[in-house]
Sequence to fold (623 residues):
Amino acid sequence: MALSRKTPIERIEYAIIVSTLLLLVVVTVQPILNLLAVSLSEPAKVPGMSGLTIIPRGFSFEVWSVLLQHPNVQRGIFNSIFITAVSTVIGVVGTALMAWGLSRPGLPGRKALFILVLVTIVFEPGIIPDYFVNKRLGLLDSYWSVILFKAVNAWYLIILIRFFEEIPKELLEAAELDGANPFQVFWHLVLPLAKPALATISLFYLVFHWNEFFRAMIYLNDQGKWPLQVVLRQFVIDGDKVAIVGANNASNNTGASQIDLRSLKAGMILLTIVPILAIYPLILKFFTKGTMSGALKG
Amino acid sequence: MTNRDEAMISPKFGNVPKLSARRRQGRLAVAADGWRRWWPYYVMMAPGILFFLVFHYLPIWEARIAFEQVRIVPPNIWVGIKHFQVLFSSPVFWQVLANTLIISAMKMVFFLPVPIIVALLLNEVRGGSLRKFIQSAIYLPHFLSWVVIAGIFIAALSPTDGAVNNLLGMAGMAPRSFMTDTGAIRWVLVFTEIWRSAGWDSLLYLAAIIAIDQQLYDAAEIDGANRWQKIRHVTLPGIVPTIATLFILNAGMFLNADLNQVINLSNDVVRSKIDIVDTYVYRIGLQTGEYSLATAAGLFKAVLGTMMIVIAHFVSKRLTGKGVW
Fold:
């Protein structure tokens, strides 16, 4: 009914608006779909394939199977999952516990602690001092350098504090009157109430740690500990062919070395974003809500 | 301080005699009582506080090597501002600083309007599922790492089989190697930034648009306003505070031209055009081993950056009511 009242000009306007946005969708998604098409094509047909196509030439899982059997890639997958899982758990637990204390208005020293956190947001002395702290603590070349370093994120902490502060005071006081200690209140009351907020910051940490590469690159010399992002960088950005096809295969013309480098690179890039795509519906749900409500409240 | 004052007037201490000696005892008692009540919270916060002290404050202490001569056999020697003098007399450093400012300025001018336009367009889309589909697609790149994005764009900008040059070829233009083109590489940074975050950032403006009072639109409708008049006279004024806030905060981050982006899109051919302070620190520090000079450059940027962001925060707070924290 509403549409019937629209004038022709308004309909043309609407068509222009929608096509502009759909063009944006194409620009965003096409480069990724092109890589997918390249990685799923028969390797022999890849040379000369256009960058515009999103349809594979022939169909083959050979690239993916070569990648998934490659020891460096397998190590990378394991390392990425391990580092992401452990640092997310440590980050969420540390952040939630600290946010609970900082959300209590009567806490002695609350203001000082807030300043302690805020200073770290505005002042960062840089990567060299960070590197030396890691060195001094003996963390260099160990998983812990990447996992522990800056495990509690100041921004996520503030988000969680804001959320905890909105829990009705009466609820907390009632629990305290019933004789519950702060640990019990936290465990039985605050955590269940904060599930959406906890899910949000868990996803924040998850995405952040999965995508982390710079610290892993500078703290981990041992290639066996590299997460997927660093393996990807060595292969795609630095163009290190030997790293991906293996020293034995690089010189002779067998196995992986016969596959066009372009398709291996495409597959490697996609492999690295598979987990992000897998949790993307959750990301959309929680990130969007978190950002919207934050913007509205702010 | 206010906490203690509040505790003092709590009924528990109402009958403490007003003698100075007693009062001091009372204060101790209050502190003791406070501790009895609050220690569990400090136990729970301990890991977090420890993380902040060790991983954020220890680096500030380590940054003193900017003022020291590093020796293989400790201790280091205090040399004052010598490294800063070397830094400020080095043409490379000024080039790097200029690059940082140029790249930030380009991003500010060409990036900032894009998410605003996207949000305005999205707000006009009426079909709920069409809108959701568009949003789901354009938010995605925000969650990809710069390594991945660099990989995607190295492929898309390839002179032989990249999408962009394929398009140029269809238009009859000669292929161009954007990634190794000193005239193009800064635009690659700007465009990849737009590709990655313009969609996601539009969400911030969209939230502001949704918060606009529907009655304003109804009133405009009654006055016979068309789509563009409503956008101009209702929507845009409604999101001006958000635009101002994000503009000011971006200005505060001017020295952060994004290390992760540059380090992955850089190469030997174009380095001189996009070498920023952060990549310079990384290169001379961790790759060449001039720790003190690199730390000095990092500290210079940190101090200047802190000043800018604190100023930005207060300006933003003053003008729009919203700040960084």
In short: Chain B touches chain A through 101 residues (CB under 8 Å). The two ends of chain B are 22 Å apart (CA to CA). Residues 23 and 29 of chain B are 9 Å apart (CA to CA).
